[in-house]
Amino acid sequence: MALYSEKVMDHFLHPRNLGMLEDANGVGEVGNAQCGDIMKMYLKIEDEVVQDVKFETFGCGSAIASSSMATELIKGKPLEEVEQLTNKAVAEALDGLPDYKMHCSVLAEEAIQAALEDYRKNNQ
Ligand code: FES
Q: 74, 104, 111, 112: which is the annotated catalytic residue?
C-alpha cells in the first residue's frame, strides 16, 4: 500500500487556496518546534462566515496537504462549525495520514484556531 493516499498527493501537488489574503481580518501563524515547520492561515470573515481563506506553509508535504484540505473544509462555513474542526477531521478528509505524520495535520487545526482568535481579538 502506498504511504500516502491519492488525496494527500493531490493536495500536496496541487494545493488549493495557496498564498496570502490581502484583506484577511484574522491571521494565525503556528509552528512545530520539533520539525521547524510553519503554517500561516488567512481568514476573511464576514457575518460570522469564512468568506475566503488562504494559507502559506513552509513545511513538509503532509503539512501542505493538510493546510490545503483544511482551507477547503472551512471555506464558506459558519464560525461555529470552523471552531469544531479537528486535525482528525482534516486527516480523515485526506483519507488518512501515516501515524508519524498526524502532527502535520495538528498544525492546520492550530493555525485556524489562531486565526479565529486573532479575528475575535480585533472584532470585539
Ligand atoms: Fe513538520 Fe510535517 S514534518 S509538519
A: 104
Tens-binned pLDDT, residue by residue, of the chain (124 aa): 589 999 999 999 999 999 999 999 999 999 999 999 999 999 999 999 999 999 999 999 999 999 999 999 999 999 999 999 999 999 999 999 999 999 999 999 999 999 999 999 998 7
Protein residue with least CA distance to atom 2, ligand 1: 104
Q: Identify the bridge partners of residue 28 per DSSP, sorted by sequence position.
A: 41
Q: What is the CATH number of domain 6-122?
A: 3.90.1010.10
CA–CA gap between residue 117 and residue 107 (Å, rounded) = 15
Q: Which of 3, 29, 37 to mutate to test the pocket of ligand 1 (most atoms within 8 A of CB)?
A: 37
Distance 76 CA to ligand 1 centre (A): 27
Q: Tell whether pTM > 0.90.
A: yes
- The domain locations on the chain are 6-122
